[in-house]
Amino acid sequence: MNFLVFPPELNSVLMFSGPGSGPLLQAAAAWDGLAAELNTAASSFSSVTSGLAGEAWQGPASRAMAAAATPYSGWLAAAAARASGAAGQARAVVGAFESALAATVHPVAVAVNREELVQLVVSNLFGQNAPAIAAAESQYEEMWAQDVGAMVGYHAGAAEAAAALAPFEQALQNLPAVIGQLSPPGNIGAANMGDGNKGSVNYGNGNTGNANMGNGNIGNLNFGNGNQGPSSSQPAILNFGSGNIGSFNLGGGNIGNSNLGSGNHGSANIGNGNFGSTNLGGGNSGTANLGSGNTGSNNMGSGNTGATNYGFGNIGNNNVGSGNTGNSNVGMGNLGNGNIGAGNRGNFDIGFGNTGNNDFGIGLTGDNQIGINFSGLNGGTGNIGLFNSGNNNVGFFNSGNGNWGIGNSGNFNTGFANSGSTNTGLWNSGSLDTGFWNSAGTDVGFGNSGVGDVGFWNGGHDDFGIGNSGALSMGAFNAGGGDVGFANAGAGNVGWGNSGAHNTGFGNAGATNTGFWNSGDVNTGGGNSGKTNTGFGSAIDTGAANSGFGNTGTGNSGFNNNGNANSGFANIGSNDEGYGNVGQHDTGFLNKSNGNTGFFNIGTNDVGISNAGNLNIGYGNTGPAGNAGFWNSGSDNSGVGNTGNNNSGFDNTGTHSSGANNTGNQQSGFRQ
């Protein structure tokens, strides 16, 4: 966050809308309290040891005890001094904040200045307000400089206070060296702070590896929970986040390396839910895209299917603009190739609504023509509007057929710049989409490049949520498949931050665990790096058939499971994760059939909540199969409440329609 370049609207709001100095004052009081407690402990410890050595206990053993105890008494006193110093520096930061706040321009004053400028510009028809506009801008520049000066002073004061803090570690240098070799019970390794670790210098529980700060990691130098590498020979290294499979990720639920974001399946992505590498944005399937929901590579924009497009919703390659079907077009809604303009159906046209080739003009129907077709300005037939080269359109610049809107090169679309067919929305290059920037088919939402997604920025297919690059997941930022929850890179998990598979809980890098931070397998509890443990912090393998209580099958973790290889609670089927699942391979809660992900599904292979059909994605779909969205009772619909088949939009009863409330077939628009 660089306050040096932030305008006063932002710097002022940040200063006046935050929690203020209250939390720092509370922290200072807490540090003072800790210093007092440590001083009391140091005095008491010194008094007791000196009393023993001076009166009741004499001889060499007494002198050895006193010599061993003295450094610890000194450490308590030094720690008390460090705590008191921290309290003083916290109060110094409070002083710096209060001074900066007093010097910061009030947000209301900034808003008044901007509103005054807008009014002056709007009424400046003849230039009479030029001096007043200049004065307002000069005042605004002074506000900017004043805010930056206040923030510079605040930063300098806070940095000075932080630099004056004495590290607590310095006080440990005089303690006996053996203290650094100790680990709590349940660890296999040295210098661990926690339980159930296999390795050394871990700060946390259930890690397999070294120098992890967190829990349930398989690897080294991870900061977070449940991270692991792609294989035993490639452990995870230096992840900042949870549930990653790979190394050098900053975020959660990534499969790959060096991602900045969550739920990516690939490497070097900046964003969420990308399936591919080096993407900047969300929900892309491909490589080196700048934007969201692209299927292809090197696109700059969103919702493109193809490569090297600059714009939105293009099918093809090397287009500049939106909604083009074809290659090398500049403009909008062109169906052919090499066009400059909008709504051209032919090739190498310059202009609008031309159906021929090599035309220069508007609405021309032949080849190699120059001019304007004044008989309606449409190159197609049955159109209502202007510059349409397709047929039976309502709107402008449509080169497809049966569209309602602007710049559609596909067919039967309702909206703007759709190059796919039967879409309801904007810039969709897929088909049967409801939303915008969708490059696959049967999506509801925006920025989806997978098929059958409901939500935003999903690069995987048949997902219900946000930023999922895996398949058949419900939640957010899952790169694994069949997950219910958040930031899971493993498959078939219920919870969050799991890089292992088939877990119920959070932060598990192992498999089939019920609990949290387990790097081993089939554990019930937390922080176990061993296998088949019931409890917490175990690094051993017990060899038991199940972990937990009340399980009747084998390979179960959790409680009261009747099948095999389940994690969770009261599952009757096998290979289930969660609670109360009756079918096989269910993930979630109370699913009644097989292969479901989510809650209360009675169909098969559904993702979401309360779906009754098969392979339905979303909520409350009762149709036979293939719906994405909400309350659809037909088949292969995207949207809400469609009773027909192959529709996008809302409450359509026919087939292959887009829009809303259409009762016929192949319709676009509203209520026909």
TrEMBL record:
Coiled coil: none annotated. Belongs to the mycobacterial PPE family. Residues 634-649 have a biased composition (Low complexity). SUPFAM superfamilies: PE/PPE dimer-like (SSF140459). Residues 2-165 form the PPE domain. It comes from Mycobacterium alsense. Residues 634-672 are annotated as: Disordered. This is PPE domain-containing protein. InterPro entries: Mycobac_pentapep, PPE_dom, PPE_sf. Residues 650-672 have a biased composition (Polar residues).
